Amino acid sequence: MDARRFLPSVFCGLRSRSRRNIMDDRKRAVQRQFGQRAGAYARSASHRRDADLELLIAHLQAAPSDRALDVATGTGFTAFALRPHVRSVVGADLTRGMLEEARRLTPSGEGFSWVVGDAEALPFADGTFSIVTCRRAPHHFPHVEASVNEMVRVLAPGGRLGIVDQVPPEEAPGYDLMEALEVLRDSSHVQALRPSRWRTLLEECRVALTFAEQVESRQTMEAWLELAGADDARRRAIAAMLRGAPPQALEQIGYEERPEPSFLKRWIVLVGRK
């Protein structure tokens, strides 16, 4: 079952354009979306501190000698959580507006650097960092495999890679429904990998997995839509999609109508060594 059957209009016309242009357009969509919503993400309590961030920091086993890179740092919350444990942190992001918020929120003291950078072409030499992290961002990457390879490239031998990203249900039809909802909510969403694909991807990139765990929390539809700034048309389309979704798919995403519409947001936390 193809996720695109849930929302055919979203993908209309893509076959007629080159893959390179699609990739460029997706990156521009990310810059527009997060440039407009940078303030909202700076205020997000879930991004500032949540169970996935605590697990990530705990299992990276950071040391005072470590130099860390946080890829797609956004407003800097993962970098801020890393800094007390390492010598220095560089936060890289494609969107200048997000980095401006990160600079504004930066705690007093030294050890932070903020760099405009594309996850698929990181502006650093091979083996520069002993820790590389990327939290809640890979589902926006046009080519996530290339991005992970870049993270591994700039990681020193023996260094630790930590990735957190949202994951849909492993099986259809829940997988298809969750992905279709994500694209309707936020056009900069590319694809959230299944948990099984994340494990094989790290293996392909020669990262030895040392920790993997999924965490979940119930999220109201209103909070989820508000964070992305979803307009009325997107909200109506999502409501219609939910009304027409198979009961099995709704069960797989943990959808509930009462006391208010909500679903289970799931994240995978992965840590490994190069």
Automatic annotation (TrEMBL):
It comes from the Bacteria. Pfam families: Methyltransf_11. The keyword Transferase applies. One of its GO terms (molecular function) is S-adenosylmethionine-dependent methyltransferase activity. Residues 69-161 form the Methyltransferase type domain. Keywords: Methyltransferase, Transferase. The keyword Transmembrane helix does not apply. One of its GO terms (biological process) is methylation. PANTHER family: CLASS I SAM-DEPENDENT METHYLTRANSFERASE (PTHR43591:SF97), METHYLTRANSFERASE (PTHR43591). This is Methyltransferase domain-containing protein.
